[in-house]
Amino acid sequence: MPRLMPLLLTLTLAPATLAAAAPAPADVHLGGAAFAGLAADSYRRANLDGTFTTWLNEAYTRTGKPLGDGKTLTAALEARRAELHAASGAQRDKLALETATWAHAFVKASIPRFSLERGYEFASIPKYGERQCLLQSTIIAALLQRAGLDAGLVMVWKSLSGQESNLGHVTSVLRLSTGDVQIDASEPTPTATHQGLLAWVDGGWRFVTPTFDGDVMTAYVRTDGKGSVPAAKLGFLSLAYVKSQYDYYRAERTVGGVLGTGSGHSSPDGLKTSEALLRLSLKEEPGNPLAASVLGTVLRKEGRDDEARTQYRSAAALYSAAGHMPAGMAANLSWANGTGHRPLPALLATLLAHR
Question: Are 303 and 168 members of one domain?
């Protein structure tokens, strides 16, 4: 029996040490239930009739940005899907990049304006012609996936120039046979080289630094110093994370909410709405560190300091597990632990960096 004890202990403890199963990357292909659901939710909130897919199909015919010889968006994407299926290796990668270049140009031409205030809503596209990083990346991924390509979304914490933010940006990523390529409609050219990303790596959401060969990301180095993974091992954001991020932006930009949108000042009702949306965001994806952090800020602005301190500590634990602590979060944690003070205006300014 004594000889069996180490084995029994191993079997008993093993499940606790296993890495969490990777969530499925968000399947947001155009025409699918998830993409339609995201758009319908936005239209419902805006009391807008119609469907976004109808708007997108109409935009294809009027923007003068055709994909191949396709007369309609659906026909063009299906034809490209067949071409990609018949191709392989370098030929397929070239065709994939051509498709991504088209998607980048189509999104920028059909949705000409960028707006932090309203551009995260699908409904803002037909109403105002506005987009934002999460929305444009979702649409690009939807188009590429419909064409049969492996594409998804990732969070960005370090920009092309190396400027750090508290997960202040989102980009779409196209997977090729040689690695991954960022496709970002916030940039004038299709491919981008953001220097820091957050995605699923080694059993959790991790901060990583890409290794580039030109514009292609061939590997990702964990910021916590625990090694690296090849491009194919990085998991894109899950549908739960994507939904969580939409509700995060709604919370951030609520009129009178945490950023004081509208009047420049937060109001009790606005903060209450921000809080509800952030709690929904965390219900959808408990591992969203940005939502967890900003919830602490909302509680602090409401004068609920004890709850804010607890929330900041919870958020800090998520950042630590992911391998990086942004400066703003470190300051929040210092305040929560009674070792520092940070005025709220300076704290909120960190939310606006690099969008």
Answer: no
Q: Which two tokens stand for residue 153?
A: 């979304």
Whether residues 217 and 286 fall in one domain: no
| pLDDT 10s digits, 294-311 | 999 999 999 999 999 999
342 Cα distance to chain centroid: 28
Q: What is the mean pLDDT of the chain?
A: 92
Identify the domain containing residue 307 by its residue range. 240-352
Neighbours of 337 (CB within 10 A): 12
CA 1 → CA 4, 7, 12, distances in Å?
A: 5, 10, 16
Contact assessment for residue 175 and residue 235, using Cβ atoms and an 8 Å cutoff: no
Q: How far is CA 331 from CA 2, 231, 312, 341, in A?
A: 51, 33, 10, 8
CA-nearest of 102, 168, 167, 177 to 139 is 102
Query: How do residues 212-248 score in pLDDT, each as one tens digit?
Result: 999 999 999 999 999 999 999 999 999 999 999 999 9
**Per-residue b/e over 287-322, b at no fewer than 16 CB within 10 Å?**
bbbbbbbbbbbbbbbbeeeeebbebbebbbebbeeb
Structure tokens at 104: 């980048």
What are the phi and psi torsion angles at 322 (to 5°)? -80, -15
| Same domain assignment for residues 202 and 253 | no
* Residue 136 in domain: yes
